[in-house]
Amino acid sequence: MTDQAILDACGRGEISPQIALSRLLLAGGEVDAGHLARVAASRPGSDRLAALARLAARHSDRLPELARLARAGLWPGGEDFPAATAILFDRLATEAPEAAVAFYSLGDPDELAAATAELVRVLRAWSPGTAGRILDFGCGFGRVALALADGAASILGLDLSAGMIAEARRRAAGRDAVRFVQGDGHRLPAADGAIDLVVAADSLPYLVSAGTVAPFLAEAARVLAPGGDLVVFNWSYRGDPGLDAEEAQTLAAAFGFAVLRAGERPFTIWDASGFQLRRAA
């Protein structure tokens, strides 16, 4: 997507200012807050572009570092995809944890907190499992797990990155109901039927790219109690919503899930699509 296409999408309200600014950064160029202010001024009445210009101005001191991160690459490469993923996020856990788990947060804890609060509101509206036993797959430094902790019986966060798990444990100090462990999706660290809700927020695309999404769905089906939910935000990054929905339907049928939602866009900040699969009762 070109810079102009990004600006047009933001102006039409198709993407939020946060997503627009992150896409401009990921496109590889330097983002000039002054230029965005001039673009907004040239389109009077475009509240979204004005908001984008204000957002860029507010974070102007962060933009060069965010551009550097984008140029350095935020997607794992190499033949051993899981190992490359762990190495990437180990580095980012130290360099830029907020930007690593949600680049559209622009590395700002307050921006990330607002997006996380919206995510939690959606989860609680969708699934009664938020009051039960939760497994947060691809938990990063625990932002979703910690935001859900007050209303949940227990939360287990799982991530491939040792660095992210260390940061999650640091941030969760004193929260006895929240536990973080390092691991992948091949064997989830829970007994059969011991979980009421599995959350995968922006983590399934890595399994899709690695070709390991089916084993994860099998494991989610194993650990979920009857009637429990698997909620996925972003099935993949391949840009084919129809294929994502088709794959979700196929795997759901194979592993005993009913598909309640496939590809809904429930957020005002994040542009993720949501999927809800419910384990047969």
Automatic annotation (TrEMBL):
Superkingdom as given in the UniProt entry: Bacteria
Domain (Methyltransferase) ranges: 134-228
Coiled coil segments of this chain: none
Entries under Pfam families matching the protein: Methyltransf_25
One Gene Ontology molecular-function label: methyltransferase activity
Annotated PANTHER family: METHYLTRANSFERASE
Protein name according to UniProt: Methyltransferase domain-containing protein
